[in-house]
Amino acid sequence: MDDRPTRKALPRLDESLLTHLPPFSRLDRRQIRTILDQATSRRYEEGVAVFHEGAPAERFHLLLDGYIRVVRITPTGEQVTALHIPAGQLFGIAQALGRNTYPATAITAAESIALSWPMRLWQAFVTEYDGFATETYRTVGNRVGEMNNRIVEMATLRVEQRVATALLRLVNQTGRKVEDGIEIDFPITRQDLSEMTGTTLHTVSRLLSAWEKDGLVRSRRKRVTVRDPHALVELTQA
DNA sequence: ACATTAATTATGT
DNA sequence: ACATAATTAATGT
């Protein structure tokens, strides 16, 4: 729960970590240096919360490596996964939404490394750093757009189509080329997929088994690879 | 068309 | 050995 012991600024934070990321790409080396000097670096185990929904938003974060699941908890205690965040993106940017508490819980989907800064620096970042504001508002725009799409999908598509699109989205965003297809490059269970698609793990299991039999998909424990993306697209439209 | 319940098996530490 | 993940069948809405 307490994150004190491992949260310590690492002595060696190379500037090349940030130079190619959209929010910082317009900045010179000196600016990047001061940004890094204000940052705290922290490594997270798989499946741990970086912050919790509703908690005071004390810091904002940048994911350097790994994946983040953005999760909301319903009153009955079940999790709903809103979206995944890949390395290189900011998250926990409540301030950009005009909030002072986190709107959702962030859980690492894999072992991850993130930088973070105290929220009070947000305004300074926005005003002093060219391109920071436009780029971050662009990504939050993309995210709410994505979530809107998901709402429409939930309402209109059948379960089979929803998990098919979920798989395709994961493959597009986090896919890693492998011999017989594209693998989702973080551990993902059927429970996880069901939480993304508003179903049960059983239904997901049945679908994956069926798809595996038809050669669309290969899955071992916590690993899913898509061998025939096009066939999944077909299912989406069926 | 899908959830729920429950029993069974597989897999990772 | 133990816990967690996945499959499978039966039953329910």
Question: Could you please describe the fold and organization of this structure?
Answer:
- With 238 residues, the chain is α+β, with helices and mostly antiparallel strands.
- It has 2 domains: 16-154, Jelly Rolls (Sandwich); 158-237, Jelly Rolls (Sandwich).
- 39% of the residues lie in helices and 25% in strands.
- The protein contains 8 helices and 12 strands.
- It has helices at residues 16-19, 29-38, 122-128, 132-156, 159-174, 190-197, 201-213, 229-237, and strands at 40-44, 49-51, 59-65, 67-73, 79-86, 90-91, 105-108, 112-118, 175-178, 181-184, 217-220, 223-226.
- The chain has a 4-stranded antiparallel beta sheet with strand order 1-8-3-6. A 4-stranded antiparallel beta sheet has the order 2-7-4-5.
- β4 (67-73) and β5 (79-86) form a beta hairpin.
- α5 packs antiparallel against α8 and α6 packs across α7.
- It is globular and about 55 Å long.
- The N and C termini lie far apart (46 Å).
- Residues 1-5 have low confidence and may be disordered.
- The structure holds a DNA duplex (13 and 13 nucleotides).
